Amino acid sequence: MKKLLLSLAVTSALLATITPVCAYEKGDWVVRVGMTSVAPDDSSSNVVVGGTDLGIGVSVDNNTQLGLNFVYFFKPRLAIEVLAATPFSHDIGLDTVGALGSTKHLPPTISANYYFADPSAKLQPYVGAGINYTVFFDEEFTSANSDAGFSELELDNSLGLAAQVGVDYMLNQNWLLNASIRWIDIDTEANFDLNGSAGSVDVDIDPFVYSITAGYRF
Ligand code: NI
Q1: Domain tally for the chain?
Q2: How far does the centroid of ligand 1 lie from the alpha carbon of residue 129, in Å?
Q3: CATH number of the CATH domain containing 147
Q4: Fewer CB in a 10 Å sphere around the end CB: N or C, the chain?
């Protein structure tokens, strides 16, 4: 009986140390998959062609893609996270005129995230800050604008800061749900040609990026 009580005591002591099943540990990996939406909070300079200010700017619309997060905990409360996604595709509009063209981009972002809740809590909020590098590709004018003489659209890649808040909801030891909101500083200069005249416009895309994902910890 004494042995049984002792082993029960040992077992419950062990369980007590293991019980915060939700706590992240050094060396944990989390992979999350879900939807990521890029919603530009954009502003732009006026478009200039051949030295002439056209007096109008451009705007960039929203896009949602498959989002992927890779998270590594190098301390129980500190993680490095990489945001990846399938390529985002945005229409670019010429203010008051209509569709101008489109571009695709990939916005890989690396962040350091700090988890501040009780480690045993199922709800694990965090704040993060990091660096974004946005690569633009497949820039093109609409066929009507191409016919009108627009060509060679090219957007400069962007390097900028990123900040985020997010939360993991631990379903069990391995599975979790996540929601996050990021703000990313993405600024670019678009250059193009219009019937032999060089054109350009500066665009601050500065999107809010919303993600809803399911994650697996291992
Ligand atoms: Ni900006």
Answers
A1: 1
A2: 15
A3: 2.40.160.20
A4: N
2 domain residue, yes or no: no
**CA-CA distance, 16 to 11, in Å (whole number)?**
9
Q: Please check whether residue 4 lies inside any domain of the structure.
A: no
Range of the domain at 52: 23-217
For residue 10, is it within any domain?
A: no
Q: How far apart are CA 80 and CA 78, in angstroms?
A: 7
Average pLDDT of span 18-37: 85
- Tell me, in angstroms, the distance from the centre of ligand 1 to residue 45's CA: 12
85-139 pLDDT per residue, tens: 999 999 999 998 999 999 999 999 999 999 999 888 999 999 999 999 999 999 9
The model's pLDDT over 66-92, given as tens digits with 9 standing for 90+, comes to 999 999 999 999 999 999 999 999 999
Tokens in use for 194? 């219009």
| C-alpha of residue 61 to centroid of ligand 1, in Å | 16
